[in-house]
Amino acid sequence: MSESLLQFEIHPSSGVPIYRQVMDQVRALVASGRLRPGDLLPSIRQLAADLEVNMMTISKAYARLDADGVLERVRGTGMRVRASGAPASLADRQKEIAPEVEAMITRAAQLNLTEKQLLTVIRSVLQERRAWLKRSSTSAT
Predict the structure, then answer these.
(1) Lowest-pLDDT range, 11-25, 71-85, 92-106, 127-141?
(2) Distance from first CA to last CA of the chain, Å, rounded?
(3) Nearest partner of 79 among 139, 35, 28, judged by Cα
(4) Is 3-81 in CATH node 1.10.10.10?
(5) Considering the entire predicted model, what is its pTM?
(6) How far apart are CA 121 and CA 124, in angstroms?
C-alpha cells in the first residue's frame, strides 16, 4: 500500500473521538477500494507519530477494526485489511456521506447562504485539497 494513498486527517476539536475518526477513515478507504484486502496499514507507532496522538488511541482503533472484521492482526507484520469482498458500490458510498451533506446544507441555510454560495465554498475547499495532495505527493518523492 502506497503511503501517499493513506492520508489520515484528524480534527481534535470536532467532538468525535480520535480513535473513531481513525476507524471511520479506515472504513472509508476500504469502502472506496483505496485499501484492498491484504494491504498493510501503518504500524501503531508510525501512525501515532504521524498524527501526533497517543499510541493507545491508534491501538484502540485498530483493535476495534479487528473485532469488527475490517482488519486482521498478522503476527510479526502488523495489521492488514481482511479479505471481505469487493469495495462498496458508488451508491453505498454516496449514501454513507449523505448525513454529513445534509448537516452541511442545514448549516449553510442557517448562515443564510444560497446554493450558489455553498457550491462556491465546496469548490474552493476541493481546490485547496487537490493542491495540498499535489504538494504532499511531490514532497514524498
Answers:
(1) 127-141
(2) 15
(3) 35
(4) yes
(5) 0.69
(6) 5
pLDDT at 86: 61
Grid coordinates representing 22?
Answer: 481513525
CB 26 within 8 A of CB 70: yes
What one-letter code names the amino acid at 83? A
Q: Which H helix or E strand runs over 71? A: strand 71-74
pLDDT in tens, 28-61: 999 888 899 999 999 999 999 999 999 999 999 9
Where do the domains of the chain lie? Answer: 3-81, 90-139
Whether residue 27 contacts residue 70, with contact meaning beta carbons closer than 8 Å, is answered with yes
C-alpha cell at 125: 475547499
